[in-house]
# Entry
Amino acid sequence: MRSTRLFPAICGSLIFVATLGAQAAASLSGTLQAQVRKATFEIVMQKPEVDSLSYEKPLPLDLLPFKERNEKYVSIGSAFAIGDNRFVTAAHVLSRGFRTQFGEPAVRKSDGSVHPISLVHKLSTQQDFVVFSCDTCGADAVLKVNREPALDSGVFAVGNALGEGIIIRDGLLTSMTPETRYGKWKWLRFSAAASPGNSGGPLLDAQGRVIGVVLRKSESENLNYALPIAELLDAPENVGQLDSEMRYRLPFLSVPTSGHREKTIELPRTYAEVGTEVMAFSDDFIDAMCKELLQKNPDTMFPRGDGAAQLLQLNIGMESLAVIAQKEDGMWDAYTGENPQSVQLAENGYVSASQFGRLLLVKIRRPDSADAAQFYRDSTAYMDTLLKGWLWKRAVGRDQVRITSLGNARDESVHVDTYGRKWQVRKWNIEYQDVVALSVALPTPEGYVGMVGWAATAGEHDLMVDLRSTTDFVHISLGGTLRQWQDYLARTDLLPRTMSESSLAFDFGKRLNFRSRKFAFSYSEAQQKILPTSRLLLTTNYVPDANGFTWDVTGLSAVEDAAGDAVVVINRLNAPPPGLPQNYAVEWQKIVRRQQPLDGKVQMEGGVSTIGTVHPYPQGKAPTDPSVLYTLVYARTGAFKDRAMQAELKKWSSGLQILE
# Structure
């Protein structure tokens, strides 16, 4: 959802073959090659020693190449020595370990020994370099430098290409290109081949002297980038320069924002200390951009502004999660996601999921026999249930092995959104990929609705900001059987504010009573069966109040039993504000005048008799200019005459009390 430029010269996938021009590059002598290899090293990270995941079968690790299945480290880049205990690499190489489930980046020598980084002495995230010390490395050679390389001269890119050891490949120094923002320096452009793992390695001239630090390849040409070594040498000692550009966008907003931030930190410091500083800088930037975006246009942000008015006119009795997102024209609408999938579970349970950008919108209907208290607190069961809804597989050689469990969540907390809804926040580590799975889930009578996303461990804060921010922009109504409501209401610690301020009580076979801040409603067994399997849906919406807007109950529907032989529906309706299309005002006047189908007369369709009215019923003169009205509709399977249904409607209306 956003493009972050903390390390602008990231060497992503440098897989290409260089084609030299007519002027062939010279070769380094054997003596120089030996010297270069002694002064160039791998940067590695130790693979995780644990795997929290469970699989449908044992992983067929024998399908992996010998080196991959026996190697304890992963190679992420290169480094080289330029002085006594002074080593150079790319900033984006070391950044991989600032927040990771792997081990910290370390230096591996040609003899296989691995050595920790001691201190960071220089750092620039904009120019993408790091100078560090390694007290136990004991470099056997040091590379000389050349501050003024000649164009069209032969060059050599050196590094741990593809993790296959130190490789030297030749080409030409083709040009010097100004950096794009301010032209503060010029990138060295060269045609020598580079591959993943070359980042941070030296670019040499024909005499084996360092002229630059290899960083990245061209996006469209067979020309690669290196930072001139003079820029690194002239950078201030004991200073870290953090620089980030960001194009930021939230999942539910159509308009992005951009920003730039800089910070200077004092060095030398340990690698871990620098990592903490850099990640805090990045996280704070993301937080600031998010805040700026949400506050930039407060008058048009949902639920305020004309763009939200049409959506607020609707009472949507939908029990799946919908994200309220802004369209390009500034209007707001509710989106249930794309490519929906649903999997049936035992005993009426199911899990459904759909895609909304990089987020997965999910719903779980817990099986009837599931213990409610255990269900709402068990992070393992929650994610294991979701994994039944889609196929998530781990590639092992030529095989694909399904993941069946992520184990216990590593972190759990509760996020209370602006409207008082309590979301359970959970994080799982997927160690082998250095990835995290994050979930925010809202308990409901039926089970859960929520959002799930995946991110590299380094990007988990970014994803969490997306998830937490989006919780303020969702639609969900609360429904379930009366038995499910009973279990749900027992978890008072997880109830949203609107339910904590409401009351719902019922005795099976006797009476049901509901009371919110806006209306109260009750009925008896004589009117409609009150069974454990009877269903109750509370429709919710965003309602203006003295402090802005609140999320409140704006309707109710009660279904007699699983067969749905009888149902009563109550809806709170607002007078349409000025500026909406004319049809809204026309429909509102029909409601005010109690015109069909709210005229208190029976409608027959599909073997169901339906009668509706505007509360109260019966009533004499209709209000002339109401701002809020409540409608009451009763439906029953079978053919019934007006008089019988009107008598029923009168009983239902007597149980409805308007409190606002």
Notes: The first helix runs from residue 30 to 39.
